[in-house]
Amino acid sequence: MARIRYIDPELKKALGKVPPSIRREVGLSFDIAGRISEILKLKHLSQADLARAVGKKPALVSRWLSGTHNFTIQTLSQIEAALGVSIIHVTKARK
Asked: Which of the listed ranges 27-31, 79-83, 91-95 does the model predict with the highest average pLDDT?
């Protein structure tokens, strides 16, 4: 993927005002969508295949994979169950 070499100063200024928590949220959403896309590719499955497996419309799966969807734990659990693969990994707290 090509790196962006120039960012408009006004855009850079506006992006600088975005709170770190929001930047992190958006980044995680894109990472999760990318992970699901990667799994589909590795398993030779289409978005339509995933939609059928979770009982959703293909348009919804397309929105999921756009990277802008706010995933719920329930949705992620359904996708993981349908694909048989973990999407995210959470480290358990130590006692």
From this structure: 79-83
